[in-house]
Amino acid sequence: MVDVTVRVVVADDQELVRAGLRMILNAQPDIEVVGEAADGAEAVALAHRLRPDVCLLDIRMPVLDGIEATRELAGPEVADPIPVVVITTFDLDEYVYAALRAGARGFLLKDAGPAMLAEAVHAAARGDALIAPSITVRLLETFAGSAQAAPAASPAEPLTEREQEVLAEVARGLGNGEIAAELHISLSTVKTHVASIMTKIGARNRVELAIWALGRGGTGSKVRRSN
């Protein structure tokens, strides 16, 4: 089996933050930081030139902020998108929604820790999405309690019984590993089911997936609160 190194471009306007992110990511055996940028415009230009597997972008940057940079690299209109993970110190729902709408594959806080940072980069490189559990749970609780929550549209194809079970666990805020343990199935099987569900309902990330489930009202589970 051939080892594949995930190539990453890091963008943050603070040099110390970039250095810290570079150190954390380069410490992983299969991740390499191949470029760094101090603003969003530089990040976009660098990403187009280097074509990394993943871009890790801060929200607040000069010239072009992280949201606009994400839209230029991974937005719905981009023909050949580059996966983006947004990382920020600002735990604001408006940033989360904006980043996801712009096409981000992940959203993390800078205190998420090395393991989750590496996991988010790997997930984005695979075509998956990872959003900090505390953010996911809060967004889902907000949605579940909103009077404006509209019923979700029917899927393109009916979900199988197992897919419905997996979807219910996603809507509780569980990660793939936790779902595998809960349903007594393999991690690869969970990933296959999640990918299939996303395709059937047209979701781009786990938050959209869980919101769709809550809109259907058929999860049978409350959203799990983070510790």
Automatic annotation (TrEMBL):
TM stretches of this protein: none
Modified residue annotations for 4-aspartylphosphate: D58
Domain (HTH luxR-type) ranges: 152-217
Keyword Zinc: no
Stored InterPro entries: CheY-like_superfamily, NreC/VraR/RcsB-like_REC, Sig_transdc_resp-reg_C-effctor, Sig_transdc_resp-reg_receiver, Tscrpt_reg_LuxR_C, WalR-like
Domain Response regulatory positions: 7-125
Cross-referenced Pfam families: GerE, Response_reg
Domain of life of the native organism: Bacteria
Keywords: DNA-binding, Phosphoprotein, Transcription, Transcription regulation
Protein name: Response regulator transcription factor
Organism this protein belongs to: Agromyces humatus
